[in-house]
Amino acid sequence: MSEENTTSQAKKPISETTKAVIEILESRDAISLSKYAGQTMDRDDLTAAQWARHLIEELADGIKYAVRMERGLLLLDSAREIIGVSSSPQASEWLDRYDEQFGETR
């Protein structure tokens, strides 16, 4: 694609979630460059099996993070039920935000 075509196209809107992912990726790149002495993901000194091992280890960590997060969310769900009986404006606001995020209805 020529530069002219790229610049003449209307820029598509990007979701806040996508923006957050981009920020995370850029941050991780900076950390990796520092941690691994300037190495990027474009490195060619690992075998396919070594890349697979790295992925397996990262996914295993990801599973642990997901399970830990799930436990926290289960606590929040319990707290939501308790807060639901409160008549304070703060509780009502929190419940509205929670419901908006997670599709809950009262």
Concise synopsis of the structure shown:
Helix content is 72%, strand content 0%.
Count the domains: 1
What is the number of helices? 4
Mean pLDDT over the residues: 85
What is the number of strand segments?
0
Distance from first to last alpha carbon: 51 Å
Please estimate the helix content. over 70%
Q: What's the shape?
A: elongated
Major sheet description: none
* Category by helix and strand content: mainly alpha
What portion of residues belong to β-strands? under 5%
Poorly predicted ranges: none
Order of helices and strands: HHHH
Radius of gyration: 22 Å
Tell me the quaternary state.
single chain
Characteristics:
single chain; mainly alpha; elongated
Structure description:
- The structure is a single chain.
- With 106 residues, the chain is an all-alpha fold.
- The protein is 72% helix and 0% strand.
- It has one domain.
- The mean pLDDT is 85.
Layout of helices and strands:
Layout: H1 3-8, H2 16-35, H3 48-83, H4 89-102
